[in-house]
Specification:
Elements lengths: L6 E4 L5 H12 L3 E6 L2 H13 L4 E5 L5 H15 L4 E4 L17 H29 L2 E6 L14 H21 L4 E6 L17 H12 L10 E3 L2 E2 L3
Parallel strand pairs: 1-2, 1-4, 2-3, 4-5, 5-6, 6-7
Antiparallel strand pairs: 7-8
Helix pairs in contact: 1-6, 3-4, 4-5
Bound molecules: NADP nicotinamide-adenine-dinucleotide phosphate (NAP).
């Protein structure tokens, strides 16, 4: 008898790196729940993949809303019985272009953290009990080189702080849930041609998604609490 496909939930799956992560995970045989805050865009993206023969379905999810997080996880748990993989991909860079620290607004930090930190944090709180029940979980947090403390520079301060913070979340989850076979890692996709990265970025979403998909499918003795780019560890 064939083993049931692992269930993966990906945030911000309607475009960019998130869409490509959905496509690659489904190509690897996972059942993917492509989530997006805009139902029209999310359904359209999921339809393209399912019409290509991939096991992809849509569920609405705005990561800034506790209610949306609870409703989405409950709906997937009811339909599928479990969630094996969580990819916290949805992200915003809300800093004004070329902005300097002294001009930056507190609301920009708050809005950025809502999406880039509190969303992943609350999703982890909602999903981990399901993972613990199955003694299996893989959590992939999309971070950035701009969140590396060892190379910290100026510019886009709210975004940088949010990515440092999601790296801290990675370490905390890794430490707390390793014994439950829940492996949590951060990754930097590089500079990627998406809405966020712009057209001049050197990397394709296909290249960017590779490390996220690798971390989503780690064996039980794979790494946890690490920060990776191109499948290799990088400094925090
Ligand atoms: N592109 C790069 O060069 C780069 C570099 C380093 C790290 N990253 C990280 O990689 C991840 C993906 O980036 P990307 O380049 O693919 O960005 P993108 O093209 O701007 O796409 C961002 C995705 O996040 C979604 N999103 C934003 N706020 C959301 C919310 N409240 N709820 C649910 N979804 C939400 C967007 O949905 P809508 O379509 O509705 O806006 C979109 O699907 C981000 O975490 C980013 O920080 C990107």
């Amino acid at each position: 008898m064939q083993a049931a496909a692992r269930i993966a939930l990906v945030t911000g799956g309607n475009r960019g790196i998130g869409y490509e992560i959905c496509r690659q995970l489904a190509t690897q045989g996972l059942a993917v729940v492509l989530t997006a805050r805009d139902a029209g865009k999310g359904k359209a993206a999921a339809r393209v993949l399912s019409e290509a023969g991939l096991n992809v379905e849509f569920n609405r999810l705005d990561v800034t809303s506790c209610r949306s997080i609870r409703a989405c996880v409950a709906a997937v748990a009811e339909r599928r019985g479990r969630i094996d993989v969580l990819v916290n991909n949805a992200g915003v860079m809300a800093d004004a272009r070329g902005s300097h620290f002294l001009d930056s607004k507190l609301d920009t930090y708050r809005d950025t953290l809502e999406t880039n930190l509190f969303g992943p944090l609350q999703l982890a709180q909602a999903v981990i009990p399901l993972m613990k029940a199955n003694r299996y979980g893989r959590i992939v947090n999309l971070s950035s080189g701009l969140g590396q403390l060892s190379e910290m520079g100026s510019g886009t301060p709210a975004y940088r702080i949010s990515k440092v913070a999601i790296n801290a979340l990675t370490r905390i989850l890794a430490a707390e849930f390793k014994e439950s076979n829940i492996l949590t890692n951060s990754m930097c996709p590089g500079w990627v041609r998406t809405g966020m990265g712009g057209e001049s970025a050197p990397r394709s979403p296909e290249e960017a998604a590779d490390t996220a998909v690798w971390l989503a499918m780690l064996p039980d003795d794979g790494p946890t609490g690490g920060f990776f780019r191109d499948r290799k560890p990088i400094a925090w």
